[in-house]
Structure formats: structure tokens, C-alpha cells
Amino acid sequence: MTLKELLPQGKGFRYNFAFIDEGVKKEVRRALLKAVALPGHQVPFASPELPIARGWGTGGLQVTMSLIGPKDVLKIIDQGCDGSVNAVNLRKLLVATTGVRTTFDSREATLLQSRHRLPEVPLRSDQIAVLQVPLPEPLRLVEPSEVETRRMHSEGDYARMWVSLYEDVVQNGSISLTSGYPCRVHDSYIMSPSPLPRWDLPLLHDAEHLTLLGAGREKRVYAVPPHTSVQPLEFDDMPFTVENFFGMCCARCGSSGTFLDEIYDETTGQASRVCSDSGFCDLVREGAIPRRGRLAHG
Amino acid sequence: MGDQVLLRVQDLGKRYGPGCSSCRDLTGPEHSTNICARCGSIAAMEGIRFDLKEGEILGVVGESGSGKSTLVQCIYFDLDATHGEIAFNGQNGGDNVLGLPRSEKRRLRGRLMGMVYQNPMHGLRMDITSGANVAEKLLEADVFHFARIRERASGLLARTEIPATYIDRFPRSLSGGMQQRIQIAKALANNPPLVLLDEVTSGLDVSVQARVLDLIRELQRELGISMIVVSHDMGVIRLLADRTLVMKDGCVVEQGLTDQILEDPQHAYTQLLVHSAL
């Protein structure tokens, strides 16, 4: 049976607005309220089954489904791109079950669901970013036990997290983590902003917008409320740095100072760089926003 | 040795089991057991009371199961004492610290104490490098300057006679004596006023034992640290301790200057211990 047959126009059984029923939405929203009240703290939630496999964005999807209303304008991104498979599938499901308007322009959206990126244009206070998270626990790399990681969070016992950074510097000369870089939120909990690249972390710090992070498989939600400090862990003598795209610019829109992806031409074998945020890139090409000429936050 | 009291322990006890009003009366050396006949609880340690002065080395001797390790583990907050008080001079207003939240205790421990366990598996993490083991202690005390951490770690490892190149090696690939010296380096990382040594030389051969004991004595003189040295070996106690507690069945049966205890033991158990050792 296809999704279409199950949905409102099908005969007999009808799904609720935004697929999940109101009781489930309420449960997710309660967890989200707690998450907003305790920035960076992972709040457990039920995470029931969805018509999408766990690990494919079900955490973000449930957050979106529990928040979305008929007047919302939705943007869904995967790796910065509106057109990749995961984004297209999630968008189809949400449109089919809600009928809301969608957009590729981050400035128009009221609700943005994303995996791996935040839009290059900083979000406003009337927008909410929902992030799909595969691994919510930043301490998992140093401690396999959930009981123990919860104790470590509750007591602020983060020495072992720091030891892993020390070892990284000893082996690689600098902290080599690219995504999932641990951040201290509101000077309290350490949070995994997974899987955002380092580039996007300054966009989370003291932001205008609310960021909600959902991990469906791990059944956790957490949040970064507006105007909350998000500090990437750094040694006093080794300041945190973002990815370096010095001397490179986007082959499509000519911007420099955006997060760039490397694209290989299959016939010529030539590598070129394009903006990872395809919505931003398209708007620059259309002339709707000016080309970016310098580092956004360098 | 100063006159200032660094650590005050009062009526400290650790019980396993439900406990009852008779535990205190039915256990101890006079009953030759630490198991309460009425409720079956184990009084691993009962009514311990002593002061430790600045720069003093206190020895704790006794047979296996007499509560020696329980005592240092309670002081180090590895175990939660069932009752009693522990107070550090100048910390928490000189009041009992056992009631503090765990996060506070961790901070206190990071600043004030270092511990060397009998088995390096307990004191070191084998899956991180020697340097990282020392760094962990510094990071616990909020030292976040990488170059300074590195410098301190290599300085301490050099001081404890670990070759410079071993800083980035895993402790599991090193010998028992070296692991023990890395533990000592780790314990000293934050210049703590108090170091606890639990049977540090028990697993080592005699020549390595002598070198580790020499090192401990040198460091103690150099840095003026207070120490609590737990051992079942009278030789270690004679070499290191200014004052000694003798424990049996969870209680202190005798205490005094080490020389006095060795030359003129009063309690029957101490006499047995001294004579079998000498």
C-alpha cells in the first residue's frame, strides 16, 4: 500500500494532520519544553515508529511534525541542499500529510529542518531550525555506558572529554574533529552539534533563532534557545577555528566566504567548489541577494 | 612537619548491609570479626579518628580485610562513608565535606588529593597515553592550556624517572614499576597537599620496590606533602611513616609514633605483627 492510499483522500482510515496523532505531538512538545529550559541537556522522548526508517531523520521529523501548523512555510535541507534524496522524501511526506507551502529560500521559511548544515543567511527570531541528529551523546566516544554518561553530565565531569581532545592534539597537532565538535552550551552541558560542520557553530552561538535537535533512533531531543552561548571546546593556547576555504570561491555563484563542497566533473576529472547551501547559491545567481565576498565569520 | 592540622577524620565508618543498633557493639577486634552477629552487616571500618598534620606521613598497617583500603578510599571519595566526618583545613569552612554534592567533592579531590592504588589498573586508564593520564588530573582542575599541560606532564614523568619518549605510550605496554611511577606522577599533577598511597609496592620485586620507596621519600621531602601510606609490610611503614595506626577488624587497635609501635607494641595483635615482620 502506498502512502497516498493511506492519506486523507484514501477510503476509510484517515491520518491526523502531520501524520502523528495529537497525543504523540503533545509528548514531543513536552520534551521540547524541557529541552529549551535546560539548554544542551538531552531529554528522552518516546520516538514511535514512522513510515521512515530510524536513522533517516526521524528525530527531526517528529519535532517538525509536532510543531508544524497549516500556515507554516517549510524548508527541508540535506547536506545544505534542498534537492537531495533524504530532503525530498521528508518534504513529500510532510506536504502530503499537512499541505503546507514549501520554499527553497531560507528567508521565507518559518520552519527549517536540516541535516548537516544551517543556512548561510543567519536565521531570525521568527524562524525555528530543526536538526536531525544521529549521535546525540558527545561523551559516547569516551564512555560506552549510558548510566555513566548521564552521571558525567549531571556532575559536570568532563575531564575525559578534554583528555580525548588532548590526545587528538598530541597525535594530529590540532583538534581534528570536523563534525560533531563538542560545544559547551550556556556554560553548562557539553552538547554534540552533530552533524554540523565547525563552520556552522558560530551561527548557533547567541543566535536570534531557536534550534531544536532531535535524534529518533537514540530517542533524545535537545535545544539551543535564542541568545544562548554555544562555545566550542578549545585549549587556552589553541583557539577554535572553522574550516579554511582561503583563496577558493563558488564555481556557480562566485561567492567566497561560504561553506564549499568539492565537486568532481566525471568526464574531465576536474575538481571545482560550489556552495554547500544550494538555496543561498541559487538566490545569489538570481541576483536576489548579493554575492558574498569575504569570510562570513573568519 | 608543621603544627597545622591538614585533615581531621572523626568517627568515620563504612558499613555494608542494612546495619542495626548493635553493629558497633558486636564487631571489632574484641569479637575478632567485622560481621554483626545480629543483622549480618559488615562493618568494614568503624569509629576511625585521627588528625593528619601538614607534611606528616601517617602509616596504616593491618592484615587483609582490616579496613585499611576502605579508609583511604573513603577519604578519596571513591567510597561513600556510612557515617562520620572528614574535614580539610581551609576547605568548606573547615567543616565536614562528606555531605557536599558529588561535583563539589570531585573538585575538592582534584585540588587537594592524589591517590596511588596498589593495582595500576585502578589508578590509570590503560587505553590513553601516559601523558594523557597525567593531563586528566590537570584537566579535572580546569587547567586548559595545552602547552602548560604538556610541560607539566613531561616534567612530572621526568621527575618520576620515566623516559621522555614514553609520554605518548600507553601504560599497558610499560612495566609494573613504571606504571606505578606514572601513577605517582599523576597523583602529584596538581601539587596536592595530600597524597594517599595504597599498598604501592606490593606487586613489585624488591629492587623496584626500593626505588619506588626512595622516590616517594624524596618527593615528600622536596614538596612537603602530607601522606597516608597503607601497607601490610612493616618495612615500608618503618621506612616512610612518622606515625602509625594499627587496624584490625575495621578498628584502630593502637596508634602512636612509628618507632614506639615497632619497639614497644602494646596490643597483642601489634606484637604479633611486629614480631612476625622482624
Question: Nutshell version of this structure?
Answer:
Chain A is an alpha/beta fold. Chain A has helices at residues 3-6, 22-37, 58-67, 85-98, 146-155, 159-172, 201-204, 278-286, and strands spanning 43-44, 73-78, 101-102, 111-115, 128-132, 183-185, 189-191, 210-215, 220-224, 230-232, 260-264, 271-275.
Description:
The complex is a heterodimer of chains A (298) and B (278). Chain A is α/β, with parallel strands linked by helices. Chain A has helices at 3-6, 22-37, 58-67, 85-98, 146-155, 159-172, 201-204, 278-286, and strands at 43-44, 73-78, 101-102, 111-115, 128-132, 183-185, 189-191, 210-215, 220-224, 230-232, 260-264, 271-275. Helix content of chain A is 27%, strand content 17%. In chain A, helix 2 (22-37) crosses helix 3. Chain A is globular. With 278 residues, chain B is an alpha/beta fold. Chain B has one domain: P-loop containing nucleotide triphosphate hydrolases (Rossmann fold, 3-Layer(aba) Sandwich). Helix content of chain B is 38%, strand content 23%. Chain B has helices at 23-26, 68-75, 102-112, 120-123, 130-140, 146-159, 176-187, 206-223, 234-240, 258-263, 268-277; strands at 5-16, 42-53, 57-62, 83-88, 113-116, 194-198, 226-230, 243-248, 251-257. The model of chain B has no long low-confidence stretch (mean pLDDT 92). Chains A and B meet through helix 6 of A and helix 3, helix 5 and helix 6 of B.
